[in-house]
Amino acid sequence: VQLQASGGGLVQLGGSLKLSCTASEISLAGHTIGWFRQAPGKEREGISCIGTRDGTAYYSDTVKGRFAISRDNTENTVHLQMNSLKPEDTAVYYCNAQRGGVAYWGQGTLVTVSS
Q: Which candidate, 59, 63, 61, 60, places its Cα nearest to that of 89?
């Protein structure tokens, strides 16, 4: 099982991007979905996740108030809307699906924010 993250690109300071996480072999609706990022020379950082029951979302302090995670169960997709982007948001972004102690990852999508 592999997840597919997409939507990255080059954006200017203050711009927005919307990332998408999809899967072909599992239903994302039944999994806790997390977004992580890894900047050059830094460790992977968890920035947001969304639960399976009531859609409770979590955000790290570094993105709180600027990013929003959401589910589109009809499309088997989880989105990460990123607003007010900063150069320090530059990283490869990954999505992760977890259920019952099993975790799936996809290849990342690169986000570059220019100043």
A: 63
Q: Which token pair is 115?
A: 């100043």
54: left (phi over 0), alpha (psi -120 to 50) or beta: alpha
**Which residue is listed with tokens 């220019």?**
114
Q: How far is CA 40 from the centre of its chain?
A: 17
CB 50 within 8 A of CB 76: no
The maximal CA–CA distance of the chain, rounded, in angstroms, is 42
* pLDDT tens digits along 25-62: 999 999 999 999 999 999 999 999 999 877 899 999 99
In this structure, the dihedral spanned by the alpha carbons of residues 8, 106, 82 and 88, taken in order and rounded to 10 degrees, is: -80
- Please check whether residue 23 is in contact with residue 84, taking contact to mean a CB–CB distance below 8 angstroms: no
